[in-house]
Design a protein that fits this description.
mainly alpha, MetI-like fold, 11 helices, flat
């Protein structure tokens, strides 16, 4: 009887010790996870190039959001009396051929450029990821979809965008559609290649053996593991879309005049570049800095998500 009581007490103590150990393990796991996140953030903010890119992007976003407050003039207001005025306290970036304030037009142009870049990045990432995942799960669809992507990639991106704009017409919405179509093939091929690698992993084979369906495997287990490279690629598409939109607007196939866009401001200034060089300088400078910032930020995000890539 005594031995039975002692053994029952030992079992109780053993259970208590097990619970204490499990609680300690939970606390240790939480601490370890927190420390790993702190190390990641220290690594990102220790990357001077990425931080510089983040500062540039945040500054441009701030200027675009608060353009109505920062801009001293209406970007569409004509003032022919003060046309081609050089930089002054009244007009920080001078005026253009119609007397419009270049500073105000550049600030409002940032809104259009960032809207196009962000929207194209999100849409191309979403549709490209969906196409790539579907192609990786269906061999018949893979052949058809990838051949279409190869055909689109064979055409230079700017030329394809100009062709689509010629069909759709010059409009902000059509610029977004055209650039999304141009960037989907790259996203689809990236998503497909990553999905094919993950599909051969041991845990995916185990899920198949357990009877998991194809759609469940693709959307519950493969898709979350390819989001990281897609996010990194979206930042680069963001940057390239800003350049392509500026090129289309410069050629007259993008955002229609008189809406301010960095591209069409450059187009308006090219004819008077020797008399009013500031019309070309500032939108070109903002375009270059924004693209540089996005590329540096994209590199930093890539290193943050996947340190081995560095």
């Amino acid at each position: 009887m005594t031995k039975t009581i002692d053994s029952s007490f030992e079992n109780v103590y053993a259970d208590d010790r097990t619970e204490m150990k499990s609680e300690e393990l939970k606390q240790l796991r939480k601490r370890l996870s927190k420390e790993q996140q702190e190390i990641k953030y220290r690594r990102f903010f220790g990357n001077k190039a990425a931080v510089f890119g983040l500062i540039i992007v945040c500054t441009v976003i701030f200027l675009a959001l608060f353009a109505p407050v920062i801009s001293p003039y209406d970007p569409l207001e004509l003032d022919t009396v003060n046309r081609l005025k050089s930089m002054s306290t009244e007009h920080l970036f001078g005026t253009d051929t119609m007397g419009r304030d270049v500073f105000s037009r550049v600030m409002y142009g940032a809104r259009i450029s960032l809207t196009v870049g962000f929207t194209v990045g999100i849409l191309s990432g979403f549709f490209g990821m969906g196409i790539g995942l579907y192609a990786s799960a269906n061999a018949y669809a893979d052949n058809i979809l990838m051949r279409i992507c190869d055909g689109l990639k064979a055409i230079p991106s700017t030329l394809l965008a100009i062709t689509l704009m010629a069909v759709l017409g010059a409009d902000l919405k059509n610029v977004i559609i055209a650039l999304t179509v141009v960037n989907i093939p790259n996203m689809a091929r990236l998503a497909r290649s990553r999905a094919l690698v993950i599909r051969e992993q041991t845990y995916i084979e185990a899920l198949r053996c357990l009877g998991a369906g194809r759609l469940r495997i693709v959307w519950r287990h493969i898709a979350p593991n390819i989001i990281s490279p897609i996010i990194v690629q979206v930042t680069f598409v963001f940057a390239s879309s800003i350049i392509t939109e500026a090129a289309l607007s410069f050629l007259g196939a993008g955002v229609p005049v008189p809406l301010p866009s960095w591209g069409n401001i450059l187009n308006e200034g090219k004819g008077v570049i020797y008399q009013a060089w500031w019309i070309v300088l500032f939108p070109g400078l903002f375009t270059a800095l924004t693209v540089l910032g996005l590329n540096l930020l994209g590199d930093g995000i890539r290193d943050f998500i996947d340190p081995s890539s560095k």
